[in-house]
Each structure stands twice: as C-alpha cells, then as structure tokens.
Amino acid sequence: MPVDKVPDIVVGRLPLYLRTLNYLLEEGYEMVSSHELGRRLGISPAQIRKDLSHFGEFGKQGAGYDVKYLSTQLKHILHVDGVWPVALVGCGALGHALANYNGFVTKGFEIVLIFDNDPAKIGQVVAGKVIHDVADMPRLICEYGIRIAIVAVPSSAAQATVDVLVRCQVRAILNYAPINISVPPGVQVQNIDPSVHLQRMTYYL
Amino acid sequence: MPVDKVPDIVVGRLPLYLRTLNYLLEEGYEMVSSHELGRRLGISPAQIRKDLSHFGEFGKQGAGYDVKYLSTQLKHILHVDGVWPVALVGCGALGHALANYNGFVTKGFEIVLIFDNDPAKIGQVVAGKVIHDVADMPRLICEYGIRIAIVAVPSSAAQATVDVLVRCQVRAILNYAPINISVPPGVQVQNIDPSVHLQRMTYYL
DNA sequence: GCCTTCTTGTGAAAGCCATCACATATTCTA
DNA sequence: TAGAATATGTGATGGCTTTCACAAGAAGGC
C-alpha cells in the first residue's frame, strides 16, 4: 500500500537503509534479509520490514531483498535518483571541508554555489568553485534553481542567512550553526551541532 | 522525583534546552517560561515541563525558570559542568575544521589529542596541538584518561579506529564517518553524516 | 488585603511507534 | 518430489511519548 502518510521517523531511517545497501552492493551482495540488514544497523528486522511496507512490497519470501533493486527504489522514494544542486553559505574552515567533501555526489547532491561575506575570500576558488558575495545570493540561487542549502556561517548570522534562503525558494536547509533557527511551514531543517551530540552522550558517562 | 530511568529521547533534548538557555542568558534574560523556551525551540511548553520534571522541580509558579540556575542544573545533569578532554582521530579537512572549532570549550569539551596515520602530517601542529601517530593512540589515550573521542577518518578505517578506541576505555564516540559502526554495550555513539541528513529532507521536496 | 493573571508540576488520556507472531511463499536438501 | 528451513508482509499487542487539563502556588495592580 504505497501512499499513506508515512511517519517522519520512518523517513529518517530510509537514508540509513540506503547507505547500508550501497555498502552491501560494494561487498558483492545480491540479496539481503531484513535480519542481516538489521544486524548491521542495530535495528530489529521487524522494524525494517514494517518501514519498507509503507512504500510497497520489495522483498521475496524465503530470499530477502534484492540489494540493487531495493537501493534503486529507496533512491527513488527519497528523491535522490538524480543529483540536487546545493548552495553552501559560509566558507570558513567547516565550509572548506564541506566544499572539498567528495561524498556528496554519489548520495545525490552537488555543491554548485559557494557564498561568503568576507571580501578577502570573495573571488577565491575552493574545490573548483568561485566564492560569491552573499549579496548575490538572491540572484544566483534563483538562477540556479536551488532548493537545498547548507548553512555554515557563525551563529550570529545564521537566522538572517536562513531568512534570505527561504525567500529564495530554498526548501531544505542543513544547519551547522549551533543555534535554533526558525523557518516557515514547508521548509525542512536539519541541525548538526557536535556539542549537542557530545552532551547527549556525557549524560551516560 | 530525581532518579527514575529517564528516556533517551528526553536526554537528547536537554542539550538543546541548555543551548537555548545560554543564548537567553547572553540576551540578558533572568527568568524564562516554558512557553517562551518552547517557542524558541519549536517544542510544546508541556513537553519541556514534563522533561525537566524527570530531574526535579526547577521552576517557580507564576514566574518560570531562573535561566542561570536552570542552565547550571542542566550542565550538572549532563555532566558538562567541567571540561572533558577529547581525542580527535583523523586530521583531514574535517578534522582540521573540528580542531580549530572554538565552540567546544564553553560546551564542556576540549580536544587535547589529535591523531592521524599520514606520515606527512604526523608531527605537524594544528590548533596548537601536535598530530600524533595513530599507532600511539593506546598509550596516549590511556595516559590522558580520555573517555570521549571524535572519529573523522575515512569510512574504510572507521570500524578499526573505533575498536581501538573502545579497547582504550573510550565510552563516547562522535562518528563523522558515513558508515555504521558497531560497539559493545555501554559505549555511546552519535553519528553525523551530512548526506543522511540531506536525504531525510529530500523526501519532502 | 484581595482579586486577577501567570506559570509550574503532574495524573490522565490520547496518539504514536516498535515488537510480536503467524499465514504465506520461496529456497534448499536429499 | 517432499519436507525442512528461511524470510516476507501485516494485523494485533504492548509500550512509550506527547498532549491535555487542572490544582496549587506566585506575582502584580490597586
């Protein structure tokens, strides 16, 4: 039954399934069971089957899932069967690392625009891309039809940056600034703050 | 009632509360209501009150929470009222950015050891710290009494790196490698993979 | 001092999510 | 070919999480 309303928490696990399937593919697996997939992910087999059942019937009884086929299907479901052009805002140390990260393309993303507000950086080339002035964001993001942006600016500039992005029709934002940003309904946000992740673990130490 | 078994999902929100409280402090707030805190975080006031009630009664009826006091209490609960020494393994572009990130100390962490396996990098100084040979990890991590590590090595090296860390008594690992690592019970892991975060959003585009 | 307004902490209810368990189908072995 | 083993998809169950709603306490105005 393909199209009920799928819980966010289920959608959040699909990229993990996809990532593991691609590793299995590299290792030469042709079929994989929910049991094996779950073992690798630390997730119960039942949960994996239930999650996938939201989108259709991908497995074969007695055999499991065709790795290549399920990978393809998940890419389609997640809308990463093509390559999304992505804008990167903020080209400090972290921005540099992200610009040079070569893991994006195979996952369905490519950084095609880089912005910074530092006059000393504007015009420089990073990872084969020119750093543009943030003042040109509205024009360029519109021209390129960008819908996804990565924010790697200081906390103090994050909300203003996001506001501009949202006005430019960006609908998905990966936020590296350690601050809560607010966006209108319909705009997706994911936050990455290493301190938050670390503090979540120290509770148990 | 301070000491029931607190759900993981509640623990995971505490760092977000703490982060926002510290911003409120900078803005000069002395008191804050669960309503205002929730508004900033996109979380319901009831949930914040319920979460905090797992650990005690921190608020005052009619007034709200003393920002400074609640911040202090949350730091204590999360065990970040001191500064944890942290080891960073892998000093590529991402490792460099993390080593130079100045946001850790105020959150309760300090990178005191950096490792890499590249002979060309070993001995170099990054952010005031010498890069050590990964071969010296067991000795140095033991000497420094490290319990927390950040893994920023290639996927192919991640599991082996983690295995060594676990043997060295590291009990919390922030993993930037885009792969699922397995650890024994009692070892905390948090994963950061930008592609996974992005794919989680593209579903909705 | 009194009344209004505000806010917390919490039991109860509602809603969401993970697990269980099994009918069904396929594969493997001999 | 038959029987054992394997594995999916799913209704039912149980547990966990969030929200609701309110008693009780505190602050502010006059």
Description:
- 2 copies of one chain form a homodimer.
- The first copy, chain A, has helices at residues 8-26, 34-41, 45-53, 67-77, 93-100, 137-144, 155-167, 194-202; strands at 31-32, 59-60, 64-66, 84-89, 109-116, 125-126, 129-133, 148-151, 172-175, 188-191.
- By secondary structure, chain A is of the alpha/beta class.
- The first copy, chain A, folds into 2 domains: 8-77, Orthogonal Bundle (Arc Repressor Mutant, subunit A), CATH 1.10.10.10; 84-197, NAD(P)-binding Rossmann-like Domain (Rossmann fold), CATH 3.40.50.
- A 7-stranded mixed beta sheet of chain A has the order 6-7-5-4-8-9-10. In chain A, strands 1-3-2 form a 3-stranded antiparallel beta sheet.
- In chain A, helix 1 (8-26) packs antiparallel against helix 4 (67-77) and helix 2 crosses helix 3 (45-53).
- The longest helix of chain A is centred in the N-terminal third of the chain and has 19 residues, at 8-26.
- The mean pLDDT of chain A is 96.
- Chains A and B meet through helix 1, helix 5 and helix 8 of A and helix 1, helix 5 and helix 8 of B.
- The structure holds a DNA duplex (30 and 30 nucleotides).
